[in-house]
């Protein structure tokens, strides 16, 4: 018997599945303090969420040398790990309606993946904390791929799930997610509850914009206007 084609919905994590900006900002502030440089504003830090660490630091400090970017990225990891070990991480709540949206889509045969600038360890912690680890058939992180918007994560997710671009959608809150989707030739769905505004999502190539998880199913079936 032939298997039905797999329809794959790939989600970003930070700003799409969970609201993690407070912890990201605090860790980045600590990393810049470690090199005795004034940290960027929290608005600026929110703007780079989704990029891999070195690329994120480079975007925040474009005039600095590559060694500086690498040092701050390592200090960020250390700061985040220390915050977790000391029990100082703020809650990273799921966005309202996520679980219900996953239930509806799963009932229709969708498979789920994640493509994130987080590390394997960071993503595993988030999914385990929220009881979501068994929901996803493919997990792609910055540990094994170039930074967004390179399409490597989506290509690997499709290969692992056994599907093709015309059966795949990328769901994310940043222009980097939209640009990655376009580069991989998959449908791009932008969500407005994260860290980039609607104008940036559209500039990144979003095919459709969703303002709440309750509308995601309709967007994926083409019932929500762009």
From TrEMBL:
Q: Which GO terms describe its molecular function?
A: phosphoglycolate phosphatase activity
Coiled-coil regions in this chain?
none
Which parts pass through the membrane? Answer: none
Q: Which Gene3D superfamilies match?
A: HAD superfamily/HAD-like, Putative phosphatase, domain 2
InterPro entries according to UniProt: HAD-like_hydrolase_sf, HAD-like_sf, HAD-SF_hydro_IA, HAD_2, HAD_sf, PGP-like_dom2
Q: Mind listing the GO biological process terms from this record?
A: DNA repair
Q: Which Pfam families match?
A: HAD_2 (PF13419)
- Choose one Gene Ontology CC annotation of this protein and give it: cytosol
The record's NCBIfam families line, in alphabetical order, gives: HAD-SF-IA-v1
* PANTHER family in the cross-refs: HYDROLASE-RELATED, PHOSPHOGLYCOLATE PHOSPHATASE
Question: What is the protein's name according to its record?
Answer: Phosphoglycolate phosphatase
Q: What is the lineage of its organism?
A: Bacteria, Pseudomonadati, Pseudomonadota, Alphaproteobacteria, Sphingomonadales
């Amino acid at each position: 018997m032939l298997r039905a084609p797999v329809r794959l919905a790939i989600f970003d994590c930070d700003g799409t599945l969970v609201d993690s900006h407070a912890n990201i900002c605090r860790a980045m502030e600590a990393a810049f303090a470690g090199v005795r440089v004034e940290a960027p504003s929290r608005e600026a830090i929110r703007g780079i969420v989704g990029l891999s660490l070195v690329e994120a630091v480079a975007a925040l400090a474009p005039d600095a040398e590559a060694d500086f970017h690498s040092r701050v990225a390592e200090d960020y990891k250390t700061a985040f790990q220390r915050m977790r070990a000391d029990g100082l991480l703020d809650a990273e709540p799921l966005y309202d309606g996520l679980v219900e949206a996953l239930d509806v889509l799963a009932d229709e045969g969708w498979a789920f993946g994640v493509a994130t600038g987080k590390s394997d360890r960071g993503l595993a912690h988030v999914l385990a904390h929220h009881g979501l680890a068994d929901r996803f058939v493919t997990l792609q992180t910055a540990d094994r791929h170039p930074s967004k918007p390179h399409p490597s994560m989506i290509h690997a997710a499709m290969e692992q799930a056994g599907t093709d671009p015309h059966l795949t959608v990328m769901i994310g809150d940043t222009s980097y997610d939209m640009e990655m989707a376009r580069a991989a030739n998959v449908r791009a769905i932008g969500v407005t509850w994260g860290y980039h505004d609607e104008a940036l999502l559209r500039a990144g190539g979003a095919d459709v914009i969703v303002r709440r998880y309750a509308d995601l199913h309709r967007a994926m079936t083409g019932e929500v206007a762009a």
